[in-house]
Amino acid sequence: SFMWIMSTGIILFTYTDIVYYYLDFRGQYSPDHFVDFIYLFSLSLIAFGALEKVCRNSSISEIDVVTNIGGRRRWLYLLIYPLFTILFSASGLIPVKPTYSEYLVWIVSISLYWAFCKYIQFSIGKEILLKRNNALLEQRVAQQVSELAFLTNQDILTALFNRRYFIDRLNETLKNRKPEDLTALLVIDIDRFKMINDTFGHDIGDKILIEFAYRMTQWNRYGVLLARLGGDEFAAMINGHYTKEDVEELCHQITEFCSRPIVIEEMPFSITVSIGASIAGAENCDARTLLQNADLAADRAQSQGYNGYVIFDPVMSKDFRKSLEIEFLLKNADVKKDFELFYQPQYAIPQKKLVGAEALIRWNTPEHGYIPPNVFIPIAEQGDAIHQIGRWVMQEAISQAAKWNRDHALSLKIGFNVSPKQLEDPGFIDLLRNLVSETGASPEWIDVEITESTMLSDEDKIRDIFAAFEKLRISVSIDDFGTGYSALSCLGKYSFDRIKIDKSLVDEISEGDDKRVNVIQAAINMAHATGMQAIAEGVERQEQLDILMELGCDQIQGYLLGRPVPADIFEQKYIEASLSDKKAEKGLKTPE
Ligand code: C2E
Ligand code: CA
Ligand code: CA
C-alpha cells in the first residue's frame, strides 16, 4: 500500500504545483488558498508512504508479536491529540470555523504524531526481538554446555560417570550429609584383570569392562552412584538410611552378580572382584581420605585371596602408614651393612643330630629398632627391594655353608628362604649356579625353602624350576606346609626333597587334636612314600617332640632345641657342641 500512498502523494504534489503556478500567473493565488492544503497533504502522503515502506521492509514486520508491540500504548498516544483538540475547542482557543492552514496544521501534527508512534513501536519491537534472539541464543548455549558437561562427566568406554565427576559428587554429598545418613564408598577391583588383558588382548579386556559396567547398572536399583575410576577400578557411592550391614549386603550382591561368566566371542570368562568399602565417620569426612581408605581396604581384600570385600578399619590406616615408612627405609637401606643373617639349628630325631640350619634375616634400623622379617619381607616383595635382599641372603648363606662345612669337615645343609617373586626372575637359576661355583660350596650343603603358596602358580613354570634345582643337585623344601590348600595334592605332582610342617600344625598337636595329628601323619607318610623327608618347625615343647618322633618325623627345628642366632654364636653354640658330641661318640666307640 506504500506504493499507492506514495503515488497519490506525488500525483497530488505535481498537480498542486501546477495549479499553484497557474493561479499565481493569473494573479488569483492568495495565502491560505485551498491549493496550499492539497499541497501539504500531498507532502504528508509522501512521508507516510516512506514511513510505511521502512516499517514494512524491516524484519520486525515479519514477526507476529511485533505488530502488537506497544499497541495499547499507541492508541493511547493517538487519543491524546484529539483529546487536546476537543479541550482546546471547548476552551475557545481553536476557531470555530478553521481556515485551510489551520486544517493543515492539524493534519501535519496528526501525521507527525502517527509517525512518532510508529517510530516508538518500531524501536520497542526491535528491542524485544533482540531480547528474544538473545534468549534463544542463551538457551542454545546452555543446552550445548549441558551436553558437553555430560560428556566430560562420563567415562567413554563404559558410559558410567568418570573419576572427576564422582569425586565432585562425593564431596558434595559429604558436605550436605545429614547426621542420620550413612555415606559409604566402595572401590571395586576386578581380580587379575591385568592377566586377562595381557593374555587375551585389550579388546577382550575392554569388552569385559563394558559388560561389568552394564551388570552394575542393571544391579543398581538403589540409586547408587556408579563410576569407573580408571583401568579396572570401579566405584560406588551410597548415601541414605543404611547400616554397616547394608553395606556388607551390597558388597555381597556385587560379588554375586559377577559370578555369572561373561561370554565374549564365545569364550566364557569367570571374573571375580575385590571390594574395599569405607564408611564416612566423624573424622574421615573428605572424599580423598574416604577414597584412600577404600583403596586400602580393596588392597587388603585382594591380598586376602580375591573375590571378597573388606570394610576399612582405622587400624589399617596405621598399618599402611607404617608400611609406607618401612618401604622408605628399605629403599635407603644398605643391604650389606644393615641386614644380618641368623641361623637356627635343625636336628635329626631321634638321635638329635645337628643336620643343618635355616638362615633367617634380621634387620635393625636406627629409626625403628628391630623390624621382623614377616613385616618387611612382604613390603619388599611388593616393590623391587626383594631382589637385592634375596640375592644378598643367598650369597651370605651359601658362603657361610661353604665355610662351616669346609672348616669343620661337615655336611650341614643351610637353608634359606626364597620368595615367589625371586623365582619369577628369569636370571634366578643362573645366579644360584654362579654363587655355588664362586664359593666352591657343594650343592648338598644348600637347601632352598619355597613356600607352599608358590605352588599355586603356573604348573609348567614350577615344574621347570624344580627341574632346574634337581639339575643343580640343590635340595628344595616346601615351607609352611599345611597352611595352604595345595599341601597334599602337590606332594604327588612335583618332586622335591623335604616338607616343612608349619608351626600352626605343630602347635595344635599338643592340644590333643586328633584330626591335626592325622593330617601330620598323612603328610609324613606321603612324604616318605615319595622319597621325601619331613621336618617340623616351631617345636617349643618336649611333648610336641615326643609326638612328632612317634609319628616318624625326620627332623625338628624350634626354640626347644635352639633359637636363631648370629653366625659366630651358631658356630660356638651348635657346631662346636655337635663336634664334641661326635668326638665323644668316637671316644665311646674306640675302646670296642
Ligand atoms: P619361616 O620361614 O616360617 O621361618 C620360621 C620362623 O619361625 C622364624 O621367624 C623363626 O624365628 C620362627 N621360629 C622358629 N622356631 C620357633 C619356635 O619354636 N617358636 C616360635 N614362636 N617361632 C619359631 P622369623 O625369623 O621372624 O621369620 C619370619 C618369616 O620371615 C619366615 O618364616 C620367612 O617366611 C620370612 N623370612 C625370614 N628370613 C627371610 C629371608 O631371608 N628371605 C625371605 N624371603 N624371607 C625370610
Ligand atoms: Ca622358612
Ligand atoms: Ca615356615
Task: Outline the structure in words.
The protein is α/β, with parallel strands linked by helices and 592 residues long. It has helices at residues 2-26, 34-57, 64-67, 71-91, 100-152, 163-175, 193-200, 202-219, 244-258, 287-303, 314-332, 335-338, 373-382, 385-408, 420-424, 428-439, 459-472, 487-493, 503-509, 514-529, 542-550, 567-589, and strands at residues 161-162, 182-190, 225-230, 233-240, 262-264, 267-269, 273-279, 308-311, 339-348, 353-365, 369-370, 413-418, 446-451, 475-481, 498-501, 533-537, 555-557, 565-566. An 8-stranded mixed beta barrel has the order 9-10-12-13-14-15-16-17, surrounded by 5 helices. A hairpin with a 2-residue loop joins strand 5 (262-264) and strand 6 (267-269). It is rod-shaped and about 175 Å long. Residues 60-69 have low confidence and may be disordered. It binds ligand C2E and calcium ion (2 copies). The site of one calcium ion (CA) has 5 residues, from strand 14.
Tally the helices: what do you get?
Answer: 22
Radius of gyration (CA) equals: 49 Å
Any low-confidence stretches, pLDDT <50, length ≥5? 60-69
Fraction of residues in helices?
A: 55-70%
- Beta fraction: 15-25%
Name the strands of the widest sheet in spatial order: 9-10-12-13-14-15-16-17
Q: What is the SS-derived class?
A: alpha/beta
What ligands are attached or bound here?
ligand C2E, calcium ion
Could you give the count of β-strands? 18
Mean pLDDT: 85
**Terminal CA distance:** 151 Å
Largest sheet, strands/sense/barrel: 8 strands, mixed, barrel
- How would the global form be characterised? rod-shaped
